[in-house]
């Protein structure tokens, strides 16, 4: 066992055990234990479990993103302060002041990647389970918590005509298999489209005007195209089971993000304006930045009225 496999061993056992449990429960409920659809549903349930456990991380990600958006005016001021200073000491001072801003708000430019980074060990563990399934099935070995029978069942099961352990890159040359190519390409397109749509929606609807320029906006734009491109290329080396996992993960993330954006949007964003428009139709008061602006306006009006000098009322003279 290599060093990488040793590090992943706890995650491999966890992923394979959960996958085995879901498969066992689905088989008990009457689904064919050898069917690829049973294993597919077990993978989807694995996604739901992992994403549910990651909800606290996702909430932290949302808070960090909003803190980064709120920091954009301060970061612009800092950049203007050191605009014409190119020496090493000035660059270090700017970096230190910027890091202090991030520290004070408890955020960083890379906080948006947190859920994916946390999920990566489980993904690599699942990748190892799926990619070694065929070899383990031929040699009669177990993989993590999966028994020999489960490994063979998984390796031989098919999804829409393609085996779970099939890899697109292995079937585009001499071993060309049209079924595998069609299934893999469709899953890659769905996976990448969902990822692109999720990031595009975040940038278009859930970012304030101030945050749509500067370093944070540049980071988001890079993520918009970089991650889909990486996963599209990587998809050629992903087994069908891994493609199913990531496709289900991305669709879950899209639904989760749309739910958050609709009910708890970023202050000053398009989504917040749409929320307040819906609330206005229902006769409800505004929330977020609009509510804060309304409160500040009311306070200014009240202060203005208090500051006005009250004119004395002239008393009527008594008749003699």
UniProtKB/TrEMBL annotation:
Membrane topology: Multi-pass membrane protein
Keywords: Cell membrane, Chaperone, Coiled coil, Membrane, Protein transport, Transmembrane, Transmembrane helix, Transport
Disordered as annotated region, ranges: 271-320
Family to which this protein belongs: Belongs to the OXA1/ALB3/YidC family. Type 1 subfamily.
Functional summary from the UniProt entry: Required for the insertion and/or proper folding and/or complex formation of integral membrane proteins into the membrane. Involved in integration of membrane proteins that insert both dependently and independently of the Sec translocase complex, as well as at least some lipoproteins. Aids folding of multispanning membrane proteins.
Assembly: Interacts with the Sec translocase complex via SecD. Specifically interacts with transmembrane segments of nascent integral membrane proteins during membrane integration.
Protein's recorded name: Membrane protein insertase YidC
């Amino acid at each position: 066992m290599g060093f990488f496999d040793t590090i992943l061993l706890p995650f491999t056992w966890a992923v394979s055990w959960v996958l085995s449990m879901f498969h066992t429960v689905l088989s008990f409920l009457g689904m064919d234990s050898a069917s690829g659809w049973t294993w597919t549903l077990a993978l989807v349930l694995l996604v739901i479990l992992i994403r549910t456990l990651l909800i606290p991380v996702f909430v932290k990600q949302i808070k960090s993103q909003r803190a980064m958006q709120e920091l954009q005016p301060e970061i612009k001021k800092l950049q203007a302060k050191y605009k014409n200073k190119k020496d090493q000491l000035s660059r270090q001072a700017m970096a230190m002041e910027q890091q202090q801003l991030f520290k004070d708000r408890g955020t960083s430019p890379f906080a948006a990647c947190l859920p994916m980074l946390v999920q990566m060990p489980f993904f690599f563990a699942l990748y190892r389970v799926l990619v070694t399934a065929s070899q383990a099935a031929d040699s009669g070995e177990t993989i993590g918590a999966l028994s020999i029978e489960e490994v063979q069942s998984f390796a031989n099961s098919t999804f829409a005509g393609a085996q779970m352990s099939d890899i697109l890159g292995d079937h585009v040359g001499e071993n060309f298999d049209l079924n595998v190519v069609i299934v893999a390409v469709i899953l890659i397109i769905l996976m990448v489209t969902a990822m692109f749509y999720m990031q595009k929606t975040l940038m278009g609807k859930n970012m304030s005007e101030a945050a749509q320029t500067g370093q944070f906006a540049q980071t988001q734009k890079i993520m918009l195209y970089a991650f889909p491109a990486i996963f599209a290329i990587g998809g050629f080396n992903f087994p069908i089971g891994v493609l199913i996992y990531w496709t289900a993960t991305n669709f879950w993330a899209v639904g989760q993000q749309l739910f958050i954006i609709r009910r708890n949007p970023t202050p000053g964003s398009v989504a917040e304006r749409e929320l307040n428009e819906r609330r206005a139709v229902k006769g409800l008061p505004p929330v977020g930045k609009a509510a804060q602006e309304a409160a500040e306006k009311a306070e200014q009006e009240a202060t203005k009225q208090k500051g006005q000098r009250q004119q004395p009322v002239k008393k009527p003279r008594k008749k003699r």
